[in-house]
Write a sequence for this structure.
């Protein structure tokens, strides 16, 4: 389990994480929602062990994230792969780097998402690029998968394909997938657990169907309401 | 199909199946989608699908046979009860609406008769 305890992080005067206490439930697809600048990316980076907290702590299965690298697959919002690489080259790099690389999974997802691994990133459309980066992340058998804005800037068809690829890949109960996005619509039915952030704090938390049942509203409406309350 | 975003998805998955049973699209013995295929096709969380299937199993509407799939096991009696419940629900809201509009029972009955016949002649 990934647990945040009194976690705070500031960038200059901006408090990206404001005393966050949060336990991400195991084995679920979790939607980390919130407006731009809410602290979603910082939360994910902290879980991946890529930012130093100012105070508090984050643990992954009881240890600091840096000691759990092999269990964490993190997809940053910005591409970090050299653009002149082919998908194949990137896959070889990943395979050499990560012990949990699953080549069968990689090839299946490539086929499912209609990608050719000889394609260079410079030749790829935004959608193809996003799909390729996702395939590379999901090809690891990591216990925790952290995806930062996997849908940003891509068309609706590619989004749908990515959603389906996520369902396809997800092995129930064994993987925890956290998807940070401000575009809720696409994955509203895909996420089982909701974490909503605003101004560095967690403002809504819970099981998606329970929230719909309790409020009689869509997740989007619940978020909007929480956001309005929060900004008053 | 699109789910209503404001209501629990697992309930809507059950309703979807109940509807197919009541309209005869699904019959006893028919195989339904595997949980995984359902999740993929409708882009719904696999655990949500699992919850719906489990509940349908508890209701005795379907049965899952290991390694073979999920099959419809609904009885005639269950089907009758489901239809009665649905009809009651529809009648109730219809009657409330007609009452609100100030119609008498006799007027409503005449209207029902006429509209029913009109619909029947269309087909």
């Amino acid at each position: 389990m990934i647990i945040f305890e009194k976690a705070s992080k500031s960038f200059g005067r901006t408090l990206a994480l404001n005393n966050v206490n949060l336990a991400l439930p195991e084995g679920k697809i979790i939607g980390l929602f919130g407006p731009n600048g809410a602290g979603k990316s910082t939360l994910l980076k902290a879980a991946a062990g890529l930012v130093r907290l100012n105070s508090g702590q984050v643990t992954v299965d009881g240890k600091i994230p840096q000691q759990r690298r092999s269990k964490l697959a993190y997809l940053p919002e910005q591409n970090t792969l050299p653009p002149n690489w082919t998908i194949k080259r990137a896959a070889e790099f990943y395979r050499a780097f990560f012990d949990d690389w699953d080549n069968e999974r990689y090839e299946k997802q490539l086929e499912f998402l209609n990608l050719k691994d000889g394609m260079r990133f410079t030749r790829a459309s935004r959608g193809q690029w996003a799909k390729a980066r996702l395939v590379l992340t999901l090809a690891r058998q990591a216990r925790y998968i952290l995806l930062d804005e996997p849908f940003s800037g891509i068309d609706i068809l590619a989004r749908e394909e990515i959603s389906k690829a996520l369902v396809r890949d997800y092995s129930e109960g064994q993987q925890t997938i956290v998807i940070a996005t401000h575009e809720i619509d696409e994955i509203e039915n895909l996420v089982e657990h909701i974490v909503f952030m605003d101004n560095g704090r967690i403002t809504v938390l819970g099981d998606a169907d329970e929230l719909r049942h309790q409020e009689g509203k869509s997740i989007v409406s619940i978020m909007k309401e929480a956001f309005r309350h929060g900004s008053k | 199909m699109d789910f209503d975003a404001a209501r629990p998805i697992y309930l809507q998955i059950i309703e979807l199946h109940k509807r197919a049973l009541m309209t005869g699209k699904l019959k006893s013995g028919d195989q339904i989608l595997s949980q995984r295929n359902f999740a993929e096709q409708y882009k719904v969380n696999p655990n949500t699908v699992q919850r719906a299937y489990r509940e349908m199993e508890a209701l005795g509407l379907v049965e899952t046979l290991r390694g073979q799939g999920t099959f419809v096991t609904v009885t005639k009696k269950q089907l009758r009860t489901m239809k009665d419940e649905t009809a009651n629900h529809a009648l109730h809201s219809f009657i409330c609406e007609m009452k609100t509009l100030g119609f008498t029972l006799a007027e409503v009955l005449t209207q029902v008769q006429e509209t029913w016949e009109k619909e029947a002649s269309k087909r």
The mean pLDDT of chain A is 90. The two ends of chain A are 34 Å apart (CA to CA).
